[in-house]
Design goal:
Chain lengths: ~475, ~475
């Protein structure tokens, strides 16, 4: 008989798990003092580790020792209160524990039957999320539509786009899809993966607020239709990545409707704001969109990945994505009594991601979620006011939520110098974009640990550098 | 000033985290006594929970109390030693801790710069995995190829397939892709999502061992080429889902090569076996395949999701999937000094999944990983021998690894009765398939907790029912 595999016993798991929880709690306490952007050169992390895997298992303390020695210096600390880059990606206590539980249970929810709780809890929390954000009940799982958690907005967009193409039955090469010049690259990627040629995805002009111009969309769709093409899909964005511009969804939907085109709304960052009743302008048009998504893994205190997608009618999505081989058939599915989420996504397998959203919603409650969003928006508005009051700087775009886009009035070089100095200092991490071909410093506020003093310190650093 | 959000402090995280670790350890200890397949009716889980989200945050003990009350009864226990369904999905201690750490760090590795450790550790562990499995160095990150972790084999297949279409530049409607009648449904789904019409994906016949017939493939590709079509992609399977049939990859690759078609190998389950030198027949053809994937999240003690994909040449993959908007540009990427994994996958964002694979490899070592696989194969071979020795049963297919396909000689009804009785009893969970249009009971061995006594008990139950 060969040696048995050295599986970790429940008691060892207790011990190592408790130690790792302690390590993570202490990482949380140290976060503020760590340089936000990783300071290592390419290849540094790998060079610290052995080139070959171990022949025999290693003792756990050796593994944990490498976390501080190799991993932490190689991180860009997304959970730092001084992380103002991209958009926030909050990993809060309840969401970490939700992921721990998901890993510990180790179930795979491709079918209702492979763990009913995985499917039913996901339907429940996505219905809860509709209620929390004031999104319309037409997306509820209790009607012909429903919600699903996807691993990213890109996949969600791809499903919706691909779905459309299948649904329309138009000749593939004649399909035309529309975005704005400010739409996230994920939609372009989704179109590519779905087999659309570059000419089949048209970028519509935006106005001075960087929001899509419905008139320009109407002209493009009409010209395509007149040329015998098939306008089939419009992606509107609520809160663009560069500047949180808000596409006018109702007007866009009206234009799209005239051509029978699917309207998908990507509210990846901004959608979470709707947990505050006073910010529900981000939901404008939800009553007429075909699909809607936003990412609790950005601003809603839930760790990556957790992207919520709703459709008003699930039939075309299922028609596009359902493939049932014999080995996946089962009585519950055959009876039509259940939802099998594998038919709502590209991969077959799926983790129990609803747990973390459930933990987050229950831990914070509606009031706690709103308090977090409200705090970020207040800080964003305050920073925007400071920028406007300083004659050396200007706002590069409206700041409707908590992203502030600013630039030095002297031009790109001055702005770039500030960005490089801030990031190089390790005190904070900001990213850039270009608007009207001018460089922009983006300050995205919304990290759970960010307080007023962190935004103040950043602004002090920026102005000192000016 | 509004109320602050009730974020969980590091000390609260310590307390709740330690309690949850204890809960999971105790779940591990109870696993063997729980009914494997969930016994609840559709709607039961949801009916136990409030229809509306809480207005205020709830105390943590109330949340945890619902785990035993609602979640556990609603689970199908994939980690039970009596789980013989589908393929195993092992969530071992080290992999759970890897996921906990990934959640706790909360970094997002879309770019090298957004956490260098996330990218470099992934390159390292995928190179380690090549060495552990004896796969060829042509897939190493140190050459023109390289490996990447994908969330599922479906996505990996899709990337490879889509990549090909772009690379070939053939007219989309003329592309033809080939699978066998036994290929996993994920490839069909990937083809759909990539915009291929059903007629563009051809299912090639298999022989009596359920492996693809290279002669049949050669005939189909030649006929298509003669008809002016563009044969471009062949998906070979090493270890099919129904019966772990092994497609003859070298012969398939030779046929495909003559047409310049891409050869992708899906070794989702069986690929892990190669950690045992004596089982490296599963690697046949790896020296000539364009892409290769297997899922450590199935048989290699790493929890879902962790699908490893390698390509011999990364250029076409990047050409297909790289889209760089301004806000993702950075000095390291512009200098070409680093790998940005967002260009290797469909979604933009990515979790730090390399951690769990790193923990698993270090905890078990090469010897421990091999011991686990060897134990599963030994049990599978033993069960296959019992089936062959019992005149009431027969093997429905060869059992080269640890999946045993059997049926009652009296026919489908007798086999179905046994499947239903086993699953209904809660003692074990097996699934079915059809081979040559006859019902088959699949016993997939490989769960980390499964010992000889569990397989014996299952066989006793089956024979008692016969």
């Amino acid at each position: 008989m060969a040696d048995p595999a050295p599986h970790m016993t429940p008691d060892e798991f207790r011990r190592q798990g408790t130690e790792l929880v302690e390590w993570i709690a202490s990482y949380m306490e140290r976060l503020e003092d760590l340089p936000v952007l990783a300071q290592v050169e390419p290849g540094w992390v790998r060079a610290q580790l052995p080139d070959h895997p171990p022949a025999e298992g290693e003792p756990w303390p050796d593994i944990v020792a490498d976390l501080d020695r190799v991993i932490v210096p190689g991180l860009t600390h997304w959970q730092s209160p001084n992380f103002f880059a991209y958009f926030p990606g909050n990993a809060t206590g309840p969401s970490i524990l939700g992921d721990l539980l998901s890993a510990g249970l180790g179930v795979q929810g491709m079918l209702w039957a492979t763990s009913p709780a995985c499917t039913e809890l996901e339907q429940l929390v996505l219905d809860w999320l509709l209620e929390l954000t004031g999104l319309p009940q037409r997306f509820s799982s209790k009607g012909p539509g429903g919600g699903v958690i996807q691993e990213s907005a890109s996949s969600a967009n791809l499903c919706a786009l691909r779905d459309l193409a299948v649904r329309r039955g138009a000749e593939p090469a004649r399909l035309r899809a529309y975005v704005s010049t400010q739409t996230h690259s994920s939609v372009e990627k989704a179109a590519r993966v779905a087999g659309l040629a570059p000419r089949q995805l048209e970028a519509i002009d935006v106005g001075p607020d960087y929001a899509m111009l419905p008139d320009a969309l109407a002209r493009a769709m009409a010209a395509d239709a007149a040329a015998g093409l098939a306008p089939c899909f419009v992606a509107a964005t609520v809160g663009t990545t560069s500047s949180t511009a808000l596409d006018p969804v109702p007007a866009i939907a009206e234009v799209a409707r005239a051509h029978g085109a699917w309207v998908h709304v990507d509210a990846a960052f901004a959608g979470s704001a709707a947990v505050c009743p006073e910010l529900r302008f981000v939901n404008d048009g939800a009553d007429v969109a075909d699909s809607w998504c936003f990412n609790p893994h950005k601003w809603l205190l839930t760790n990556f990945d957790c992207s919520a997608l709703w459709v008003a009618d699930r039939a075309p999505l299922l028609a596009a994505l359902s493939v049932t081989p014999e080995y996946l058939r089962n009585a519950s599915t055959d009876a039509g009594a259940v939802v099998d989420y594998r038919d709502w996504q590209i991969p077959l397998g799926r983790r129990f991601r609803a747990l973390k959203l459930w933990f987050v919603i229950r831990h914070y409650g509606a009031a706690g979620l709103a308090a977090h969003i409200r705090s970020g928006v207040a800080l964003g508005q305050e920073l925007a006011a400071w920028v406007e009051a300083d004659e050396r700087f200007e706002l590069a775009a409206p700041a409707p939520l908590s992203l502030v886009c600013l630039r030095h009035r002297e031009g790109d070089e001055a702005t770039q110098t500030i960005i490089d100095a801030v990031n190089g200092s390790g005190h904070a991490y900001v990213t850039h974009t270009r608007l009207d071909d001018r460089l922009v410093l983006r300050v995205a506020i919304g990290q759970a640990r960010t307080e007023r003093r962190h935004v103040e310190a950043l602004w002090e650093q920026i102005t000192a550098l000016a």
